[in-house]
Each structure stands twice: as C-alpha cells, then as structure tokens.
Amino acid sequence: MGIFLHSRNVLALVLITSSITSVLGSNYFEDFDITWGGDRGKIVNNGELLILSLDTTSGSGFQSKKEYLFGKIDMQIKLVPGNSAGTVTAYYLSSLGANRDEIDFEFLGNLSGDPYTVHTNVYTQGKGEREQQFRLWFDPTADFHTYSILWNPQTIVFSVDNTPIREFKNMEKIGVQFPKTQPMKLYSSIWSADEWATRGGLVKTDWARAPFTASYMGFSNRPVSPQEGLEPINEEKLKWVQHNYMIYNYCTDAKRFPQGFPPECNV
Fold first, then answer.
1. 114-146 pLDDT tens trace
2. Catalytic pick from 30, 48, 67, 102?
3. What are the distances in angstroms from CA 82 to CA 28, 211, 221?
C-alpha cells in the first residue's frame, strides 16, 4: 500500500509495507509464495527462477507477499512452448472480494506455430468487460520477455518489452470507474480453460504433451508519480501496436453493446 506526499514541487511515493525498492533480479523466496498446485510450482536457482506447471491433475500459482497501491511492475516471463492450446497463463494485480479491482494480462495458448493471444482487462469494483486482445511480434516461448503494468491515479499502461500495447485512462469525470483505492497483490497462475481459451474452445488441450510449463525471472517494482504516463515516442509505439497487432477491442464490438458503447469508448 502507498500514499503520496507533496513537499513544494517534490512528489514522493512512500511504501507502507517496506522501504522503496526496485528489485530487478529479485529473490523469489523473499517476494512470492507458491499458493496452490503443490510441487508444480517451484522456486529454483537460489530464488532467481520460478516455474509453474500444469498437468492432468492440477495447475499451479503464486502471489506476492506484499500489496501495491500504484507503481510500475515488471516481470520477465517465458511462456509455454509448443502446442499450448487450451492453456492460460495469467499474470495480474488484484484485490480481494466481490468488489475487487484487477488489472489483467492473460496469455491464451495455441497450436504449435500459431501465435499466442494476449488478453487484457481492467476490473473496477468487480466489473470488468473491458477486454482488448493482441498478437505478439515475436515468439514469447523462445526466451524471456518483460511484461509490465504501470499504474497511478491517472492511467494504467500495459507494456511488452517497454513497448506499450494498451492504455486505460482515468475517466471518472464522465462516470467511468477507475481502480485507485484498493491495494492489490500480484498473482500468476497456469491452468486449463480449453472450453474457451483457444479458438473459442474449438481446439482442446493435448494432455499427451503435459506438463505445460511457464517460467519467471527478473521481477521488479518501483514507485511512480501521479503524472507519469506515455511520452510522445511511446504514444507512437502504442498506435503502431494497436494498428498492427490488436485483434479484439470491446469498444468496436457493436454486437456486444447493442444499446451503445460504454462511455470511455466515445472519448
């Protein structure tokens, strides 16, 4: 949890749970707990690497020991290689309860050679339905790539390798709720959702290829100012990604909203 302190023109973010840290290459033993899946979730290499796996019995997951209220979160992830159809690797910030806030990355597996789908969503007070989906411009299974969430009272920016793919701005002035009051923990999990994850559920999980494994390293977090957002060069990168790699945007799905789009779609 954090609070903002103002002193003249200087802004500081004070973390309540600990001193300000930026822990690239941090120790997973210190920062995370394996929360389900038994030994399918493992921290190895003296805490430098975390592995989650999914088999015919169960998936697995972990969560951060600390809560965050605003900040920049980075995680290096190598996704499930090969035929990952039907699997979902989720990486997200979330509070608890029916009225939770949540900021989501979900990686939807696919057949060998086909691209992953990156699914993003923002929940406020338990309400989501703000999905945008993307393809990636590289193979996310061949190496580790950095997936980031920048969150402050004015904006949420989803980025991949420092390239923004989505921005969700605070539009409370037009009646759109924005997550800014509930501290959240960081979670990740791998699980089977073959009823919907790949081609709307048409392609099922090939369990002969289990276990399916995702790997994590290089977690970091840092405080951000309320004004931090996209610089002009990153605004151009965002436009490039959305023009070339966006495959779904709730703000253009007229069949889903026959009575009119949500108000943020008209800004």
1. 889 999 999 999 999 999 999 999 999 999 999
2. 102
3. 26, 12, 31
